[in-house]
Amino acid sequence: MRILRLAFDNWFSRAYLAGVAVVTALVTVSLVTWDQPDANLAGIWVILVTLPFSLLGIVATDSAAGPAVLMAAVVLGAVINATAIGGLVALVRRRPAR
User: Which letter does DSSP use for residue 97 in this model?
Assistant: First the structure.
């Protein structure tokens, strides 16, 4: 529970997760409304904002469950990054001022 508290219990982590949600929504709208014959690379933005852990999902995109594994890696990357941000915030708050 402490790890989830680090991921969701401060404004910095929440702002990061909100940013990931906004990027994901914009990418989804772009992919749904794209009707041109050339490739749409909007999906790369979701991977970029959740680096480095979302790269684990790219390895499995050739399999039958590729898109599901990629989305799971993106969600896992976002939660791990938010936890890291929360941990840094907690560390800075505990540190005494000089």
Answer: P
User: How far is residue 7's CA from residue 26's CA, in Å, rounded to a whole number?
Assistant: 23
Residue 81 burial (CB count, 10 A): 21
pLDDT tens sequence across 22-47: 999 999 898 888 887 776 788 889 98
Question: Distance between CA 98 and CA 95 in Å, rounded?
Answer: 9
Residue 52 DSSP class: T
CA distance 65 to 11: 34
Q: What is the pTM of this model?
A: 0.83
Domain extent listing, the chain: 2-94
CB 73 within 8 A of CB 1: no
Distance (Å, rounded) from C-alpha 18 to C-alpha 37? 31
